[in-house]
Amino acid sequence: MEAFTGTGVALVTPFKSDLSVDVKALETLVENQVENGIDYLVVLGTTAESATLTREEKKLVRETVIAANAGRLPLVLGIGGNNTAGVAEELRSGVLEKFDAVLSVSPYYNKPTQEGIYQHFKAVAEASPKPVILYNVPGRTASNILPETVNRIARDFANIIGIKEAAGDMVQAMKLISLVPEDFLVISGDDMITLPMTLAGGKGVISVIAQGFPAEFSKMVNLGLEGKAKEAYKIHYKVAPSIDLIFAEGNPAGIKSLLTKKGVIDNNLRLPLVKASESLDAMIGDFVAAF
Fold it and tell me: Which residues bind pyruvate (predicted)?
């Protein structure tokens, strides 16, 4: 589980102007993360616009990241959904062969009860050949995994090793950290409160902004893990304005704008997502230029 302590990055999927997957840009993005101190990579999460990718494109993305990474960093694959049987089938399909763990989002839209969430992840645990990290993001799923439910899951299923907690609620995060077993990973899924969560006992972050500023954000997280709050907060306050900017019009529109300003990818998204507005794009450009 030490492999997933520190800074993980939820990779975007770069697209060419014709909206095909930009393999070369994805390779560049991966190399940039590896060279700048990121600890692990998350492939085909929601930031990757996975809902718009075909099965063949998902295979291409997986294979591109595996090849570009060349075994240097642990890899996590996003596999989740609101059809429990379908998620279990995908977990058993063999796609995880080259991956070290799974990130599995809580069922969205259906709004299951806490018992329904527990039973869903019981099925996930039983189906997965690799360790599983839960993903709680109520702003997207319309349901919240309560700390008591996470604790129950953590204690009942040995291969569920952690949670990406993205409720954006420090009180909930602290309660969660206090309840779960000591070796269970509570990972921030909210860039803005990554540092306070880490200082409170969390194990780092699965981040969006870190792929834009990998060296700085990973250093901040490492300082937080070492309890060096004063030094870590200097970096936090330097990066923090960019976090507000990249999420102002949704994810991944903002981070794709930022990565374009840094020359890593071209700024293309698939509908129903659209590029950041001209005004936001300009503000992101100003921030990058001044950083």
Answer: 47, 206
